[in-house]
Amino acid sequence: MKVSQIAGFLGSGKTTAVMKIVDELMKRGHKVAIVVNDVGEINVDAKFIESHGLKAKEIAGGCICCQIAGTFSETLAKLHDSYNPEIVIVEPSGVAIPWGLKRAAEYSEAKADMVIEHAPVITLVDAMRIDLLMKAVKRLVETQIREADVCFVNKVDTASPAAIAKTEGLIKEMNPRVEIAHMSSETGQGIDYACDLIVNRISPRYDEAVEEELLKKQYKG
Amino acid sequence: MTEMSHIDRVMAALTNEPGDRLPVYPIACGVNRRFVNGGISYRDWAHDPKLYAQAFIEGQKVFDYDFAIGLMDLSVMAGDLGAHVRMDEQNTPFVDQHIVNSVEDYEKFEVPDITKGRSAVLLEGTKLYCDALKNQVITSGFIEGPLLALSQSAGAERLFMDMFTNPSAVHRALKVMTDYDIEMVKGFAKTGCAGLCWDYLWGNYSCLGDAEYEEFEGCKKYAIGLNELTIKEGMAVAIHNCADLPHLDTQIKKFAPAIYSMAYYPLIPGSPSASSVIEGGYTDKTLVGGQVDPQLFIRAPAEKVTQVVKDLCQEVKTALCKRGLNSPKYCIASGCEVPPDTHTKTENIKAFVDAGKQYGKMNA
Questions:
Q1: What is the gyration radius of the CA atoms in chain B, in angstroms?
Q2: Domains of chain A in sequence order
């Protein structure tokens, strides 16, 4: 089962993008489920979910270290056993940490007969509000960009070329290895490419081996 | 040194006196419900003060902890403020419907009646387990700080944006949260708990810088005032913060709590390890607790838990020695709550406590 995280701060166009990506993936014949952790947002799109026969689950609120990890892995295991989707699109809140969700997703392997793969972690960055975001929630945006495999500069249909260039520059500064692409979740630009990434590419697993090594060094072997 | 009682050991650590071993406390709260009447649901546990208290009493009998700290969940205050809380049978309750949908909604908060709702369950339950355990262990209540209570009610993403775009509205709501906390502190003071543990979760450099943290939590009108009130009401101040990059200078050096509980994320650059915390002087005046990964209680075999605790004890004792501290000023604890998940292995809790007792001896 492949888990695809689509991150981004409130107002980044994330929910619209997720719905379009899901729609496209289903048109391509994939069996998809959604996991969100903002119930308010998913309620808005309840009709979409019902009309497409999607399975939607929530991530329980709480600490990633003690609570979300348990409930998220349980959710994935149940989704696997009851629905067996090929791809689970996860729409975390803007304060969730992508590596924490990766790790929690892998925990579900102990609860169901499956192997978890990760699609590239996608972070949407709102080019229209980049100045505001960098002033208001810089640290949270930085975390999401730092942990992304691909950043989509979103709302490129309405943002000025200067704003897009500035957004790209900030993204590169925070995460020089990240791939940058463009999206307009309103017009659908970039949705096909996001789907290609989700289907065809793999992101590394949460690296417990690296963690073990670090701990070994700390404890002098 | 002869074996000390739980209370004497912790008091030695709090007063910089020598102790027989490092205190041990896996933050085991909700998981203890499995020892009440053969196992009860989270829903029942979080709604009935007698069942709530009984869990801590039974947990103490089974595991012999050095503390009893009553964490229920982080949606108690938000729920009583009007947010909808989802109560699954066995999952930790959580807010599934925030109550701030516009800036105007920040103005609508009112301090709820703490003699009703889950605030009352928490206070009454705390009194019951403190009465039962106060002669055995150091007891503490657990309370959400104003910013946490507001983020649970408003949704963290919205709150963080509004802190920048509508700070005055956020401050007005924080004033109500603080007034609510003041009522709760006075309520906890009547329970007989020796300490009160504050969850100041957002003191995290991944979310807020020093200036923002100072403005929205770390100042006199919020956390510092509440900490002072806690002491004035006769309780020691404890702080829990399981963030990856905690504001240690503010939360330990400035707030000066008696006890500070923290987590550790080895893969996050800059996340403070136990030894770095000791070397940084943060345990000089505060009993710091941490930092075993809570997920080990679900995922690891008991042998691994034993090894991790053994390693941590060694790391801590070496660092304390280098710092010239002969008091057991570090509590072997989990970085956050032992997952209350039904998959948590209770044998791992036992392995944790037993290993802490064995390898935490100060002369070993």
A1: 19
A2: 2-218 (3.40.50.300)
**Which 114-173 residues of chain A touch chain B by CB within 8 A?**
132, 135-140, 143
**Collapsed DSSP state (helix, strand, coil) of residue B253:** helix
Q: Flag if B92 and A60 touch (Cβ within 8 Å).
A: yes
**Please, which residues have CB within 8 angstroms of residue B155's CB and are 6 or more apart in sequence?**
A38, A40, A93, B98, B100
**Is some CB atom of chain A closer than 8 A to the CB atom of B199?**
no
* Number of separate domains in chain B: 1
Cβ–Cβ below 8 Å for B299 and A97: no
Residue B166 above 90 pLDDT?
yes
Question: Cβ neighbours of residue B309 under 8 Å, at least 6 residues apart?
Answer: B292, B332, B351, B352, B355, B356, B359
CA B164 remoteness from chain centre = 28
Question: B275 to chain A: nearest residue by CA?
Answer: A218
Do residues A3 and A90 lie in contact, with contact meaning Cβ atoms separated by under 8 Å? yes
Q: Copy the structure tokens of residue B7.
A: 């209370």
Q: What is the ipTM of this complex?
A: 0.79
Assigned token pair, A9: 């701060």
- 3-class DSSP state of A3: strand
pTM, rounded to two decimals:
0.91
Q: Does residue A66 sit at the B interface (CB-CB below 8 Å)? A: yes
What CATH number corresponds to the domain at position B15?
A: 3.20.20.210
Instruction: Kindly write down the DSSP assignment for every residue of B256-313, as one continuous string.
Output: --SEEEE---TTSTTPPPHHHHHHTTTTSSSEEEEEE-TTHHHHS-HHHHHHHHHHHH
**pLDDT of A97:** 76
